[in-house]
From TrEMBL:
The keyword Cell division does not apply. Gene3D superfamilies: MFS general substrate transporter like domains. This is Major facilitator superfamily (MFS) profile domain-containing protein. GO terms for cellular component: endomembrane system; membrane. Residues 16-406 form the Major facilitator superfamily (MFS) profile domain.
């Protein structure tokens, strides 16, 4: 009887809002990664050729987007408290799609930046609320469902880079690709905003939450010293992951003299590894193994990523990108879930929002820094050493937290 009950508890049960979250992450990833895949062609079209010193401008695209992601993320807790997570996410995805559609129309670099600002405002709310949105759906084993939902980020990356890389190689305009991805986002918004079934409503808070209450929750979390350890971990996790997502395609095209299609395959290999890892952890992960998963994955990612800047064989690079994708897979969702376990006194929605406020700047800062180093050295490959550096620092932070936990609560750590 007990075995049967355990089996039932491990079976994943999905509903409408799980699928809405999957589609939201898919469209978010597609809108984010299509520009890096098309960056070489886009840069030439808009007048900042990467081969002529335009790498800093390329990195600035995502850095600017990140600023507006952060700005809206800081207020997404208030939006969720006032209008609920479901409506807030639906409007955010709609805004994100509108910004991506404007990117397709942009006649200049300046207009492209403005369009990315609009997309960033929607992405910030989505980034801040997606994890607590899923957490509220599955409070018993949230880490499994969070990992599965986050798997649709690399699914979106994988599908986008393969399709867009192939179409770019065939001469299809990058503008048409970006416009098509905007339509995907509008479908995701519809899934969230369509009227609810009376029998299966999203479990919103029963009454609106005043902004002062939300601000008090944020201040309480910011006053916990241990939170800042996880804040740093998220900053590094976001940086290492998105450096590979953003710059892999350009690195392959510039350093190997390869086509946009080959660049897309390289990014797809990384995304495929992340997809496999997150789906795998979504099926297998147990809540009490979160720290071990992040620590050993970070160490493995460090060792796998170290040879990447020196490789001259494109097929070996593809293999390593897949492997480092598997290692990177659990970082973002599992660090968040692990932090929630370690800080049970904190409001989980605000905790996830604040952690995303570390991960997103990590993505933007290290993406810009890689472009800056590429310009300074004249070789984008050198900048890829930032990736194992981020992973190693993440492993050290998680190891330190484990050591500190063992000192303060040895019985819990031993169990």
């Amino acid at each position: 009887m007990s075995g049967s009950k355990a089996d039932t508890s491990r079976r994943m049960v999905l509903g409408r809002y799980d699928y809405a979250a999957f589609q939201s992450f898919f469209s978010y990833a597609s809108g984010t990664v299509v520009l890096p895949v098309a960056l070489v062609a886009l840069a030439r079209d808009l007048g900042f050729d990467l081969e002529e010193g335009g790498m800093t401008e390329g990195g600035l695209l995502h850095f600017t987007r990140t600023f507006f992601v952060m700005a809206s993320m800081l207020f997404c807790g208030i939006a969720a408290g006032r209008w609920g997570k479901r409506r807030s996410m639906g409007v955010a995805v709609l805004l994100m799609g509108t910004g991506v559609l404007l990117c397709a129309w942009a006649p200049s670099y300046a207009v492209l930046l403005l369009a990315l600002m609009v997309a960033g405002l929607g992405e910030g709310v989505l980034e801040g609320l997606a994890t607590p949105f899923v957490q509220d759906l599955h409070p018993d084993e949230p880490a499994r469902y969070i990992n599965l939902t986050h798997a649709f980020w690399p699914v979106g990356v994988l599908a986008t880079v393969l399709v867009s890389g192939g179409l770019l190689a065939l001469g299809v305009s990058w503008r048409l690709l970006v416009a098509g991805i905007a339509l995907v986002a509008f479908v995701a918004a519809a899934l969230l905003l369509l009227p609810e079934s009376k029998l299966r409503k999203y479990p919103e808070h029963p009454a609106p939450i005043h902004w002062k209450t939300i601000w008090g929750q944020a201040r309480q979390i910011l006053g916990i010293p241990r939170f800042w350890l996880f804040f740093c971990a998220m900053f590094l996790a976001g940086g290492g992951e998105f450096c590979l997502t953003f710059w892999s395609a350009s690195h392959i095209q510039l350093n190997f003299g390869a086509s946009a299609w080959a660049g897309g395959i390289g990014t797809a290999c990384f995304a495929g590894g992340m997809m496999s890892g997150r789906i795998g952890w979504g099926i297998m992960l147990k809540q009490h193994h979160l720290r071990q998963v992040v620590f050993w994955s970070a160490l493995a990612g460090t060792l796998i990523a170290l040879p990447i800047p020196q490789l001259s064989n494109l097929w070996v690079l593809f293999g390593l990108l897949f492997m480092v994708g598997v290692a990177t897979a659990p970082f973002w969702p599992t660090v968040q879930s692990y932090c929630a376990d370690r800080l049970p006194q904190a409001d989980t929605t605000m905790l996830f929002v604040l952690l995303s406020c570390a991960g997103i700047p990590g993505c933007g800062f290290f993406t810009w820094l890689m472009g800056f180093i590429g310009n300074r050295t004249g070789d984008l490959a050198t900048a890829f050493y930032l990736v194992p550096a981020c992973f190693l620092a993440l492993a050290i932070i998680i190891a330190f937290d484990g050591w500190r936990s063992a000192q303060t609560n040895p019985r819990r750590e031993a169990s």
